[in-house]
Backbone:
C-alpha cells in the first residue's frame, strides 16, 4: 500500500476589524446587554490597522516569512517589535477586509451577499491584478446594488450590514423568513467560513501550481454548521468550497470535532489515500467570525491591542506516495479513547507516549511537537496562560514519570522539542495544523527527522458529552527517498515459492527453493504447496488455484514479503522485468519486459517498459543503468518518445550497440553480448529472449541459467511476485528467490512509483464505459488479440459483465467470474474477439 | 468562574446548606484559581454571574492542598504529572489568601 504524503500546504489570514465588533460573541453579547457599553468603544479604539497586522511577527510566521524558531528569538511583546509588513509569504497570504468582503460575494451561490456599487467597482479593479481571482470571479462583483437599496434591506431587518472601516459597503440577506438556521447572522458566519476556506484552497492550488482537477476529495474541518431548520448541520462546506476553487473532479464532506477537527481530517485523508480510494485529498478549514475579539475584554483591561482581529484559514494536500514528500505514519496514531479518562496525564499518555510506544520510539525521538499553537500574547493576558508551553511541560513531565527524562531535563526538553505559539485563537486553526507546513519543509531539508502533530478538542462545549477529544500523528521523511541512497543493513526477507506446476515435477522446484535457502542466510524461504514436500516451512496448498489464493493472502497479510511462482495473471498495466546472463560475456542484463503488458499499445508499452526497467535496475543498486532498445517493430518510435523525456529533466543513460554504428537500437548480437543494462522490448519478444538465453545450453526444455522472468511492476502495483516458467530449472528458481528478496529489500513498488511520477506516467484516460460492480474473477478466456484486449473487456462491461483484462504467461486473457464465463465467452465470440 | 459553575455552586448551597459544602478547585493557573476562590467566598468579582454580591463564605481549597487526604495511587494517576508542570506554590498562595481573608 502507498504511504500518504504531505504534498503541499497553504496558510492564509484575513484581517477583519469591523467583524470583531459586529460578529465576535464577546462584543455582540455585550451590546445585547447594553448598546452603550464602554467596552464597545474601547475595543474599537484598540483595533489595529492592516499595516500593523502585516508587521506583527506571529502573522509573518503564519504565512511562512519567518520560522517559529525565528519568532521565538524576537523579544516580546511582539506587537512592539514590528517586522517588514509583507502580505505574501511562501506558505500563505494575509488579505485585507475589502478583498475578503469581495470573496464572500464570489463565494455566495444564492445572491445573499449584496455589494454597494462604488465599493464593488473599486475592489473589483483592485483584484483584477491579483493572481487568485479569475475574470469569472470578477464578473460576479459586477452584480451590485445602490446604497439606497441596501439601506432598505437593512431597515426591513431582512439583512445585516457588511462594514468596512465603519461604513456600510454591502449586506448579507437572510435566506428564509422564519428558519432560525438560515437567518442573516448564520448565513454571514457560514459564508465567512466558506470564503476564507476557499481563499486558502485557491492559494494552495495557485502557489503550488496544481491543477484544481487533480483533487479527488475535500475534507472541511472548521467548527461551523450549515443547514436549515430540519438539519442544522447538514453540510457540506467541503464541496461548496471546492466548487468556488474549480475542483470539478472532487467530492467531499465535513469532519467535526471542535478544535481537533483538522487533525482528524488529516488522518482520515491519510487513510483514504493509503487505501487507494483517492490519490489527492485536500484537508482545509476557514475562519470563525464568532471568535473574533474573544478575549478583548482582558486585552482592553491590560492595554494590549485587539490581537484577535484575524480569521485564520489553511489547506493541505495529502497525496499518494511520490517518493519525496514527508509521510504521515498510519501505524502509530495517538487517540483519546472514550474510556481514556480526562486527567491530563491520561490524555497526554494516550496522545503522545502510547503511539510512540507502538512505533518503538521515545519522547525524545520526536524533534518537534506541534500542540495547540495559540499565540501566548493573546492568551496570557486573558488568564489562560501560555498554552503551547503548558502542553510541552505536560509532555516532559510525563517523560519524567515514565523514566525517559530526568527531572532536571524538564526545561531543556521544552526548549528543544517545543515551539512558541503563533496562531490566532480561532479554535481549530491553531490546533496542531499550523506547523505541518514548517514540518514538511524541515523534513525535506533534512533538518527534522520527525514531528508529531496533536489536535485537541473540547467536546463538552456542545453539551452532548463531558468527554474531551484528542488525536495525533507522526510525520517522517519519505523512506522512498532514503532507499535510493541507503546503505541500511538488509533485513531478513521472507520469500514464498509455489511448488506445483513445473513440467520437471515438484522435486525440481523444491530443489530450487532449498538451494536458495542454503545459499542466502538473509532470506527465509517458505514453500507454498502440498504438505511434506520439503523440509522448508510449508503453507499447505494442493492445487495451482489453491497456491495462487494462498500466495495472495500471505502477501497481503505480510507473512511473506515476496513470492516466486509460475503462471500468474497480472492485471493489465503490470509487466515483468526479466533478468538474464548474456552468454557471450556473462554480463547480467534486464529484459523489459517478459510477460504481462504495461500498456495496450505496443510503443506506449515499450516506452513504459523502459521506465519500469530503470526502476528495477535501481532496485538492484545501479543508479544510472544503460538503456538499449531491441530492434523490433516500434523501436525507433520508442527511442523518439524516450528522448522527448530527456528534453525535460529526466535522465537516461543511453547504451550503445556493440555493432560498428554504436546506436541505441540493439541488434540480436547485443542480446548475446549484453551491451546494455536494460534491454527494452515488447513483452512477447522479451519472453522469447529469456527462454532462449536461459535454455541455451540444455537443448531447450530445461532453463538452467538466469533469474527468470522477473517481478511484476506497474502503476500502483504493490506486490512483489517474481515469475519463473514451467520449464525453469532449480538454479533459475533459486536465483528468482534471490531476485525477489532483493526487490523486497529495495521496496520496489515505491521505486516504481517514484520513477513513474518523475516522467508523469500516470493513467491518462479513463474508460468511457462504466464498469459493473467489481467481483472476484478467476476464470480465463484466452484467444483475444493483444491489441484488442482492453476493448474486449469494455465490450463485456457494456453487457453488465464484470471482466478484467490480464496477461497470462501464454498471452492475453480476459478474466471473469465463473457464473459469467459462458455468457462472456459467447459474447466475445459474437463480437468476433475470439473464434 | 464561569456562569454555569456559579449556578451549580449556588444550587448545591441552597439544597444542602453552607455548612455541608466544600469547594475544591482544579485550576491550572494562580490568578484564575484566586478569582474562583474569591467568587465562592465574597462573591463574583467580575459582577457577571449569579454569585455577584452573594457572600457564600464557603471553605475553598485547591486540590494541591489536599494531597495528604488523597490515596497515593489516585494522586499518582490523576495529579502527579500536573504537580510537576504547574506553579503549585503560587496557586496555593493565591487560594490561601482568599480563604484566610474569609477567616476560613
Residues:
Amino acid at each position: 500500500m502507498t504511504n500518504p504524503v504531505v504534498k503541499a500546504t497553504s496558510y492564509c489570514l484575513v484581517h477583519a476589524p469591523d467583524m470583531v465588533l459586529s460578529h465576535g460573541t464577546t462584543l455582540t453579547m455585550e451590546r445585547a446587554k447594553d448598546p452603550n457599553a464602554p467596552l464597545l468603544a474601547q475595543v474599537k479604539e484598540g483595533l489595529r490597522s492592516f499595516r500593523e497586522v502585516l508587521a506583527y511577527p506571529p502573522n509573518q510566521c503564519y504565512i511562512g516569512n519567518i520560522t517559529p524558531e525565528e519568532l521565538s528569538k524576537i523579544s516580546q511583546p511582539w506587537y512592539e517589535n514590528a517586522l517588514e509588513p509583507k502580505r505574501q509569504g511562501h506558505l500563505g497570504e494575509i488579505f485585507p477586509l475589502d478583498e475578503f468582503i469581495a470573496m464572500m460575494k464570489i463565494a455566495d451561490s444564492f445572491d445573499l451577499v449584496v455589494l454597494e456599487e462604488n465599493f464593488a467597482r473599486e475592489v473589483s479593479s483592485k483584484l483584477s491584478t491579483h493572481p487568485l481571482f479569475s475574470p469569472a470571479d470578477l464578473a460576479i462583483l459586477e452584480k451590485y446594488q445602490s446604497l439606497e437599496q441596501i439601506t432598505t434591506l437593512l431597515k426591513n431587518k431582512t439583512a445585516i450590514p457588511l462594514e468596512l472601516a465603519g461604513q456600510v459597503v454591502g449586506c448579507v440577506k437572510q435566506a428564509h423568513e422564519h428558519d432560525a438556521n438560515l437567518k442573516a447572522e448564520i448565513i454571514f458566519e457560514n459564508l465567512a467560513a466558506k470564503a476564507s476556506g476557499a481563499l486558502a484552497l485557491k492559494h494552495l492550488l495557485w502557489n503550488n501550481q496544481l491543477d484544481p482537477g487533480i483533487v479527488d476529495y475535500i475534507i472541511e474541518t472548521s467548527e461551523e454548521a450549515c443547514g436549515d431548520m430540519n438539519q442544522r448541520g447538514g453540510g457540506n462546506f467541503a464541496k461548496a468550497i471546492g466548487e468556488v476553487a474549480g475542483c470539478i473532479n472532487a467530492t467531499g464532506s465535513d469532519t467535526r470535532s471542535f478544535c481537533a477537527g483538522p487533525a482528524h481530517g488529516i488522518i482520515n485523508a491519510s487513510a483514504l489515500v493509503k487505501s487507494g480510494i483517492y490519490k489527492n485529498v485536500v484537508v482545509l478549514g476557514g475562519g470563525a467570525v464568532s471568535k473574533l475579539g474573544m478575549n478583548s475584554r482582558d486585552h482592553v483591561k491590560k492595554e494590549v491591542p485587539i490581537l484577535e482581529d484575524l480569521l485564520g484559514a489553511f489547506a493541505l494536500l495529502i497525496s499518494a506516495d511520490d517518493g519525496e514528500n514527508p509521510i504521515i505514519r498510519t501505524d502509530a496514531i495517538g487517540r483519546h479513547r472514550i474510556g481514556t479518562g480526562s486527567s491530563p496525564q491520561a490524555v497526554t499518555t494516550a496522545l503522545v507516549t502510547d503511539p510512540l510506544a507502538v512505533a518503538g520510539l521515545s519522547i525524545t525521538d520526536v524533534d518537534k511537537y506541534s500542540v495547540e499553537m495559540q499565540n501566548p500574547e493573546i492568551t496570557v493576558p486573558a488568564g489562560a496562560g501560555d498554552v503551547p508551553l503548558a502542553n510541552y511541560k505536560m509532555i516532559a513531565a510525563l517523560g519524567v514519570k515514565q523514566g525517559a527524562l530526568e527531572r532536571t531535563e524538564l526545561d531543556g526538553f521544552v526548549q528543544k522539542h517545543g515551539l512558541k505559539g503563533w496562531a490566532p485563537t480561532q479554535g481549530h486553526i491553531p490546533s496542531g495544523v499550523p506547523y505541518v507546513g514548517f514540518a514538511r519543509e524541515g523534513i525535506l531539508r533534512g533538518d527534522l527527522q520527525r514531528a508529531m502533530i496533536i489536535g485537541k478538542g473540547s467536546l463538552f462545549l456542545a453539551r452532548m458529552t463531558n468527554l474531551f477529544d484528542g488525536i495525533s500523528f507522526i510525520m517522517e521523511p519519505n523512506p522512498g527517498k532514503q532507499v535510493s541512497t541507503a546503505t541500511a543493513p538488509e533485513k531478513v526477507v521472507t520469500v514464498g515459492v509455489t511448488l506445483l506446476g513445473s513440467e520437471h515435477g515438484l522435486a525440481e522446484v523444491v530443489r530450487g527453493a532449498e538451494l536458495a535457502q542454503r545459499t542466502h542466510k538473509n532470506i527465509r524461504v517458505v514453500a507454498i504447496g502440498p504438505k511434506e514436500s520439503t523440509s522448508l516451512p510449508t503453507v499447505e496448498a494442493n492445487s495451482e488455484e489453491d497456491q495462487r489464493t494462498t500466495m495472495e493472502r500471505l502477501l497481503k497479510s505480510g507473512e511473506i514479503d515476496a513470492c516466486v511462482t509460475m503462471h500468474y495473471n497480472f492485471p493489465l498495466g503490470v509487466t515483468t522485468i526479466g533478468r538474464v546472463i548474456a552468454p557471450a560475456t556473462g554480463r547480467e542484463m534486464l529484459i523489459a519486459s517478459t510477460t504481462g503488458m504495461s500498456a495496450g499499445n505496443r510503443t506506449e508499452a515499450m516506452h513504459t517498459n523502459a521506465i519500469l526497467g530503470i526502476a528495477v535496475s535501481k532496485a538492484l543498486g545501479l543508479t544510472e543503468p544503460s538503456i538499449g532498445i531491441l530492434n523490433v517493430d516500434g523501436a525507433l518510435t520508442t527511442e523518439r518518445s524516450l528522448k522527448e523525456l530527456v528534453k525535460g529533466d529526466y535522465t537516461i543513460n543511453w547504451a550503445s550497440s556493440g555493432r560498428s554504428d554504436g546506436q541505441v537500437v540493439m541488434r540480436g548480437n547485443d542480446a548475446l553480448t549484453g551491451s546494455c543494462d536494460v534491454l527494452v522490448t515488447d513483452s512477447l519478444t522479451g519472453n522469447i529472449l529469456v527462454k532462449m538465453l536461459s535454455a541455451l545450453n540444455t537443448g531447450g526444455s530445461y532453463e538452467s541459467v538466469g533469474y527468470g522472468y522477473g517481478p511484476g511492476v506497474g502503476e500502483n502495483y504493490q506486490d512483489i511476485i517474481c515469475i519463473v516458467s514451467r520449464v525453469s530449472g532449480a538454479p533459475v528458481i533459486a536465483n528468482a528467490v534471490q531476485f525477489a528478496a532483493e526487490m523486497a529489500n529495495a521496496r520496489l513498488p515505491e521505486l516504481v512509483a517514484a520513477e513513474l511520477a518523475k516522467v508523469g506516467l500516470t493513467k491518462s484516460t479513463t474508460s468511457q464505459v462504466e464498469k459493473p460492480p467489481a467481483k472476484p474473477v478467476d476464470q480465463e478466456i484466452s484467444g483475444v488479440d493483444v491489441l484488442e484486449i482492453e476493448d474486449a473487456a469494455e465490450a463485456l462491461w457494456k453487457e453488465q459483465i464484470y471482466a478484467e483484462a490480464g496477461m497470462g504467461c501464454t498471452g492475453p486473457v480476459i478474466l471473469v467470474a465463473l457464473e459469467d464465463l459462458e455468457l462472456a465467452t459467447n459474447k466475445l465470440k459474437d463480437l468476433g474477439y475470439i473464434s | 468562574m464561569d456562569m454555569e459553575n456559579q449556578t451549580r455552586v449556588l444550587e448545591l448551597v441552597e439544597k444542602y446548606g453552607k455548612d455541608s459544602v466544600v469547594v475544591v478547585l482544579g485550576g491550572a493557573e494562580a490568578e484564575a484559581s484566586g478569582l474562583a476562590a474569591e467568587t465562592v467566598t465574597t462573591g463574583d468579582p467580575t459582577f457577571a454571574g449569579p454569585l455577584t454580591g452573594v457572600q457564600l463564605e464557603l471553605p475553598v481549597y485547591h486540590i494541591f492542598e489536599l494531597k495528604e487526604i488523597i490515596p497515593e495511587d489516585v494522586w499518582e494517576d490523576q495529579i502527579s504529572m500536573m504537580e510537576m508542570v504547574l506553579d503549585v506554590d503560587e496557586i496555593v498562595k493565591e487560594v490561601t489568601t482568599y480563604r484566610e481573608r474569609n477567616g476560613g
In short: The longest strand of chain A covers residues 5-15.
